[in-house]
Write a structure and sequence with these properties.
Elements lengths: L9 H4 L5 E2 L16 E4 L4 E5 L17 H22 L8 E5 L1 H14 L6 H11 L8 H11 E7 L4 E5 L4 H21 L1 H6 L15 H28 L10 H13 L5 H4 L3 H36 L5 H5 L1 H5 L12 H4 L3 E8 L2 H12 L1 H7 L3 E11 L8 E8 L2 H13 L1 H4 L3 E4 L20 E7 L2 E8 L2 E6 L3 H11 L1 H7 L2
Parallel strand pairs: 4-6
Antiparallel strand pairs: 1-2, 2-3, 3-5, 5-6, 7-8, 8-9, 9-13, 10-11, 11-12, 12-13
């Protein structure tokens, strides 16, 4: 999963939005009221909020900046580029092209990228798996939601393909300056490291295909971590640019930073689509900015600009754990690799639909949704690895999607805690979930899962989508949903070889 900046994160860099104070970071300890922005940055887009127009209403004539203002704005690019270079230590290697764009040009650009990006082809697939995990409501329609969100937000952007920063002809010039600081940071990153190539480093060459592969388990997390580097650095420069007139900086203004991050997640009355989004969508769309900003801040404190900017690009983190807990990156923590299943053998009766990582961030969102933010904050740092397989029976393509999810934790106790949280999701995800006894029959006297704080051993339930199994052994958890018994058994015996000898006695 690493669910939306890649595959499950809205199908990998399709449309990453975040609410930010675009140019209205406060002169004091609180953000000023003013222009709020959104960033669509799998595509590198900064956007300015607007009130949505009801379908029955004709849009009012839009005010645009004057030719004189446009000329001044164009001229400010070089000045702000120098500021961004000084802040990051990234050199200016060439002039950044600039273009004044209309609103419809921006929307056309985003829609074109959504259609052409190979990862965008995985959107429908990702939506189905997200619903299987219960992270999206079963009746949630993801693509129309993204379209509505796009209409609610208007964008400006740095395009790495054309090496051009696109300025907005309908947004006040002064409001665009901090946005430019953000986008021109992307231009500098691009000049030094080649953003498109750097973001794809380590990804398999699949000739443009989006077929699921075990390789995605590694690249899912790497892609998310790298996206957080790109956005966290740009957010840091935006804040420093906004605070520069006051003589303050990011490191000296923790209250402003915290208020900004809260604003990102909560949305505003001007952004009803975002505010109405499920928890997963909100968390995902703001991850790279909130946690990326914290990561950049931690590196600035630990080693200054060289470590925080160029250093992070040269030696990027590989997991969302390193982004969320920068001390693990700074200490060069190395986690023991998880046991990998033999996907072809274990799931020989299934056609792979999706395969991917479930990283620390994904665990945070899962636990928050089913047990609350306090429980999530306590449990996600205990993550030590996880991935999933989703597939459909080859002989019955109409059957429910089958899912197998394995995870490892810091201790058997934490594994048991996570298993209990996942079990509690049954009531929210299924209309009927009846506990099964060791004989495979419904156990009418089984205790309710809501009463459990920990879950150990093997437990199973019968749902309208088939059998769900949760098995805990030591510090590891295996979850099977809607898979046939033989497939679940093969996976269990593969993941825990000792299970095979036990079952044969």
């Amino acid at each position: 999963m690493t669910i939306v900046t890649n595959k499950l994160r809205l199908a990998a860099l399709i449309l990453l939005l975040v609410l930010l104070a675009g140019g209205s970071v406060a002169q004091t300890a609180q953000p000023q009221a003013g222009a709020r922005g959104t960033n669509l940055d799998g595509l590198g887009l900064q956007v300015q909020d607007q009130q949505p127009v009801a379908p029955s209403q004709a849009p009012a004539a839009e005010k645009t900046i004057s030719p004189a203002e446009a000329k001044q704005l164009m001229g400010s690019v070089d000045e702000i580029l120098k500021f961004s270079s000084q802040e990051t230590g990234l050199p200016i290697k060439e002039e950044v092209k600039r273009k004044l764009v209309k609103r419809d040009e921006v929307q056309a650009f985003v829609q074109k990228n959504m259609k052409e990006d190979k990862d965008a082809q995985r959107l429908e697939r990702s939506e189905i798996v997200l619903k299987k995990f219960g992270l999206l409501p079963r009746d949630f329609d993801l693509k129309p939601f993204l379209v509505a969100l796009l209409r609610e937000q208007v964008a400006g952007y740095y395009d790495p393909k054309t090496k051009t920063v696109n300025l907005l002809n309908w947004v006040d010039m002064e409001q665009q300056r901090p946005v430019l600081a953000h986008e021109l940071t992307h231009a500098l990153q691009d000049q030094s490291f080649g953003l498109e190539k750097w973001m794809k480093a380590g990804l398999k060459d699949d000739d443009g295909k989006a077929d699921p592969s075990p390789a995605d388990i590694v690249t899912d997390e790497e892609t998310s971590a790298r996206q957080a580097i790109v956005e966290g650095q740009a957010m840091a420069v935006l804040i420093d640019y906004s605070l520069a007139p006051t003589g303050q900086s990011l490191l000296e203004s923790p209250l402003i930073v915290e208020a900004l991050k809260q604003g990102m997640f909560q949305g505003t009355d001007d952004t009803p689509t975002f505010k109405s989004a499920p928890i997963f969508i909100k968390e995902t769309l703001t991850f790279s900015y909130r946690y990326g900003l914290d990561f950049t801040t931690a590196l600035l404190k630990a080693g200054g600009k060289e470590l925080a900017y160029a250093g992070a690009f040269k030696d990027p983190p590989k997991t969302t754990r390193e982004i969320m807990e920068p001390e693990t990156y700074l200490s060069h923590e190395v986690l023991e690799p998880m046991k990998m299943l033999d996907f072809d053998k274990d799931f020989k009766g299934y056609e792979a639909f999706d395969i991917g990582a479930i990283g620390e961030f994904d665990v945070d969102v899962l636990v928050e949704q089913y047990a609350g933010s306090d429980e999530a904050a306590a449990l996600y740092p205990q993550w030590r690895g996880g991935y999933y397989f989703a597939g459909r029976p080859k002989k019955d393509k109409a059957a429910p999607l089958g899912l197998l999810y394995v995870s490892r934790w810091s201790s058997p106790e934490k594994a048991a805690e996570f298993a209990a949280v996942y079990a509690k999701s049954l009531a929210q995800r299924y209309q009927k979930a009846r506990a099964l006894g060791g004989d495979g029959k419904v156990a009418e006297d089984a205790p309710p899962v809501d009463s459990w704080r920990t879950l150990r051993g093997r437990h199973s339930w019968l749902t309208e989508k088939g059998v769900m199994v949760i098995e805990v052994r030591g510090d590891a958890v295996l979850i099977s949903e809607s898979l046939d018994d033989d497939t679940t058994k093969r996976a269990v015996e593969d993941f825990w070889p000792e299970a095979k000898s036990t079952s044969s006695k």
